Amino acid sequence: MTEKELLRTGVATANLLDLARYPIDDLDSLEGRDLVERCRADLAASGACQLDGFITPDAIETLAVEARQLAPLAFYQDDTHNVYFEDIDESLPDDDPRRILQHSSSAAVAYDQIPGDAIIRQIYEWDPLLHFVGAALSIDPFYRNEDPLGACNVIYYGEGDELGWHFDRAEFVVTLMIQAAEEGGGFEYIPWLRSDEDENYDGVGRLLRGDRSDVIELPSKPGTLALFRGRRSIHRVPHVKGNAVLSYGDRPGKKLNEYTQRLFYGRTA
Asked: Contact 54/22 with Cβ under 8 angstroms?
């Protein structure tokens, strides 16, 4: 049986993950329940949960090779946006945070460009990972994103690239770090800067004008799986190379809006 055939069985997919440390394939075990509770506690406290060494070292090397092979397919975007990924309301004052522009530049391989037998796609489509992420986020039922572009992406940051300050439009995001940045590369955020009841434009404005007193930096290591509630926690990614974004939803049929599709992939689907 070839490696690609093994991947389709799910057996090889399991071997890519450190299941002894993170038993996501046995969530009913004591260790599995402890893992889920730990993730829930981290997310409740800080909006973020990082699982270092989730992918084995050998698998990370393979994923890095795969990412380099996919790189020629990537769409490169270099643009400005506000922190809400919404159209600018020109009637607002110039210093309103909804009018303060951020810079983002990166390259992305969309889901429909990733071959079905690619390792990153096999990991994303493995049911135990789906069930674990849903349990960690306390969402049941839980689904994979159905966006043909944004369901699973490989993102590339080169010299000078960044993802500017923003709030996610989705409730959460799941990322897998494939390659460390040559320099810098910390993930920066302020947890719970806004809520459903209060947009906290004053707090957002202070950050965008340079007040970093509440900023938290999370180092990113290859092989780390990260869960992050980014809808209410503003964040940015300065100068990172090589990570994969795995997208899920709390309801069937969830997709990106056309603004976000055009910004990151140069097309809609």
From this structure: yes
pLDDT digits (tens, 9 = 90+) for 53-85: 999 998 898 888 899 999 999 999 999 999 999
3-class DSSP assignment, residue 134: helix
The number of C-alpha atoms within 13 Å of 56 and in the hemisphere containing its C-beta is 14
| Beta pairing partners, 55 | 17
Residue type, 11: V
**pTM attached to this predicted model:** 0.85
Domain residue limits, the chain: 47-112+141-265
**Inter-helix orientation angle 127-136/30-46, to 10°:** 50
Helix (H) and strand (E) counts for the chain? 8, 13
22-45 pLDDT tens trace: 999 999 999 999 999 999 999 999
Check the CA dihedral 100-106-107-112 and report its sign.
negative
The CATH code that applies to domain 47-112+141-265 is 2.60.120.620
Phi and psi at 139, nearest 5°, equal -120, 120
* CA neighbor of 40 nearest in space, from 227, 177, 225: 227
Distance CA 47, CA 234 (A): 10
Is 158 strand, coil or helix? coil
Q: Is 247 helix (H, G, I), strand (E, B) or coil?
A: coil
Exposure on the CB side of residue 166, measured as CA atoms within 13 A: 21
By the 8 A CB rule, do 164 and 239 touch? Answer: no
Q: CA angle, 175 as apex, 13 and 123 as ends, to 5°?
A: 15
Residue 106 host element (H or E): strand 102-109
